[in-house]
Write a structure and sequence with these properties.
Helix 1 runs antiparallel to helix 3. The protein starts with 8 loop residues before the first helix and ends with a helix. It has a domain of about 90 residues. It contains three helices and two strands, in the order αβαβα.
């Protein structure tokens, strides 16, 4: 950790993860709110693989010049935005609503747990920073 830079890359990463998890929470909440809306297509927010690619990207890697070339990974985790896509109802019965409240509640619980984990890790980092500022007292 640099002396003049109190926020290291891990703290910035945890902040980014919490921002992305918050967005995912909003998408899941929207799905639950529209569980009874006829014709509503379930939305899924995905960012995990994009974040993983950004974290494993090596400096100096060549960029692609066309969208059909090799998949492009963000050069920095701060560039990760995530993507929302729709899941259409494929059952062919009912009102063409693809939301399962049980599935959404499981996704909500998982997302909440992962958000809370990132928050606790960030809290520990701030506690360590506070300890350093107080010179270990």
């Amino acid at each position: 950790m640099k002396v003049l830079d109190p926020f290291d890359s891990n703290m910035n990463l945890l902040k980014k993860v919490m921002d992305l998890r918050s967005t995912k929470q909003n998408v899941i909440a929207t799905n639950i709110a529209n569980a009874e809306t006829p014709g509503y297509s379930r939305k899924v927010f995905e960012f995990e693989s994009e974040l993983q690619h950004a974290l494993s990207a090596t400096p100096g890697k060549l960029n692609t010049t066309h969208s059909k070339h090799i998949s492009f990974a963000p050069a920095n985790f701060n560039d990760v935005q995530g993507k929302v896509h729709e899941v259409k109802d494929t059952t062919g019965i009912g009102d063409e609503n693809s939301v399962s409240v049980d599935t959404e509640m499981i996704a909500l619980s998982e997302n909440e747990l992962l958000f809370e984990t990132a928050a606790q890790l960030l809290k520990k980092k701030f506690a360590l920073l506070s300890y350093i500022i107080q010179e270990g007292k």
